[in-house]
Write a structure and sequence with these properties.
This protein has 256 residues and is mainly alpha-helical. It is built from 11 helices and no strands.
């Protein structure tokens, strides 16, 4: 029997909603050179950034509190910087703005989701979603069904709610495929290696290594162009299956 999925009714709990006021951001002119007091916001290494990247860095650090509209602005500046960065400039940009790779990825995810889903942007703009929850919800591993359901919840979700909803959805999907539908047409080891289904079958070592190398090469190609991978439920489910398979193989290898 399939595991019961996540329900927004689980979010019905007493909680006082606090909406932080919008913080001021620095409005910089794109028609005038950057300098003076604003330049002091950045470390000396910022001088190695090209003018446009330095302008974006100043705009980005100017939205320090990052709530509401300021959060959306900061995520947009960061995404613009990555898109416009020439070789070596992106890592320097992260360095001078004091931004880790994980923080950058989270905020770029927010920007992408906000651009694709106006209702998500409005929830951030109004303060209904703070940066921490928005980052968790915007992850590519969040299925579109979970994303929509939590946005329509009666009260703001917490990080724990988002993670639980993802787990419940994945458990439900796996149960549906492998329990409710035993004839699910997924590839089996017997199909790949030509086995008979007998537990005494031994998988050919050379063929196994060859297939793993092909899979690794394919994944490297996709990873190299990862910015073009769409955000969709199908992609998320495929990535979940890949991660699960890799974890299972790694655990089996480590036990030997």
């Amino acid at each position: 029997m399939a595991k019961k999925g996540f329900s927004v009714d689980q979010l019905q709990r007493p909680r006082e909603q606090v909406i932080s006021p919008r913080s001021p951001s620095y409005e910089l002119s794109t028609a005038q050179p950057v300098g003076g007091a604003e330049e002091a916001l950045l470390p000396p290494e910022a001088a190695n950034l090209v003018p446009k990247m330095r302008e974006l860095a100043l705009r980005y650090v100017g939205s320090r509190r990052r709530v509401g509209e300021a959060l959306l602005d900061a995520c947009r500046y960061l995404s613009d910087a990555r898109d416009q960065a020439e070789e070596g400039q992106w890592y320097l940009f992260l360095q001078v703005t004091g931004t880790s790779h994980d923080q950058a990825e989270a905020q770029i995810n927010i920007h992408l989701r906000a651009r694709q889903h106006p209702e998500f942007a409005e929830k951030i703009r109004s303060g209904w979603l703070n940066q921490t929850v928005a980052s968790e919800l915007a992850k590519s591993s969040t299925p579109s069904e979970v994303f929509t359901r939590l946005l329509e919840a009666p009260i703001p979700p917490r990080v724990a709610d988002v993670r639980r909803a993802r787990r419940d959805f994945q458990s439900s999907e796996n149960s549906h495929k492998y329990v409710d539908n035993p004839d699910y047409p997924g590839s089996s080891a017997d199909e790949i290696f030509g086995g008979t289904g007998d537990s005494s079958d031994v998988l050919p070592h050379e063929k196994l290594v060859s297939i793993l190398r092909e899979v690794a090469a394919t994944m490297e190609v996709v990873a190299h162009d990862s910015t073009r991978v769409p955000t969709s439920g199908d992609v998320t489910r495929a990535l979940d299956m890949i991660e699960h398979a890799v974890a299972t193989i790694r655990a089996a290898v480590d036990r030997r």
